[in-house]
Amino acid sequence: MKIFAISDFHLSISNPKPMDIFGHIWDNYLESIEKDWEKKVSDDDIVLIPGDLSWAMTLDGVKSDLEYFNRFKGYKVIIRGNHDYWWSHSISKVRSILPQKMYAIQCDAVKIGRAVICGSRLWTTPEPGRKQEAQDETIYNREKIRLQMSLEEASKIRQPEDKLYVMLHFPPFNSKFLPSPYTDIISSFSPDAAVYGHLHGKDIRVSYVTEIGGVKYYLTSCDLVGNKLVYIDEI
After folding, report:
1. Is pLDDT above 90 for 120?
2. Plot region of 202 (φ>0 → left; ψ -120 to 50 → alpha; else → beta)
3. What pTM did the predictor assign?
4. Within 10 Å of residue 202's Cβ, how many Cβ atoms?
């Protein structure tokens, strides 16, 4: 069983929204992802999709985007991104429309074979010397609670032979790649790897693999990884 990750599809199949206005890397980007997925992924592999799956605003609107993944091999695990507005309903309603072999995580965890997967959306980590706005601080602190809950649920179902993977939408550190309360929480559970997305654009400061507190964090935003699935691990 291999573990891959890719994020920030920003799908809009039922109400097309061109992504190439954001740069040439988005030209035929789905075709590039499809070809790479077909080449790399088998039926028993897992693909982690840490957020911003769709532009849809409602559950009805997102159904065609979710069904898009039915053509691809492997298990798919998703978390909510900041643009996944369709994911404003209860997790039970979200799960009720998921295709086969697709799992949604929200304050909990899922086990597939020997892989235990958990995580949360997070929020923007403050830059050094900058004070958070009150609203941002509230969301940031709420996400700490949700992250802790998800990791605790993962620890309940994790067996000694299992590997643990953490999915995040926002990076858990600032642009200086400094440790944060998020990375402290994650490190305390000793996961085998973590993945995140959210970042876009050729001029943004990125690191494709960042190690903090003994944990490797893999960037997975599709435009920044050349519209190819990122290999994470094998069990």
Report:
1. yes
2. alpha
3. 0.96
4. 10
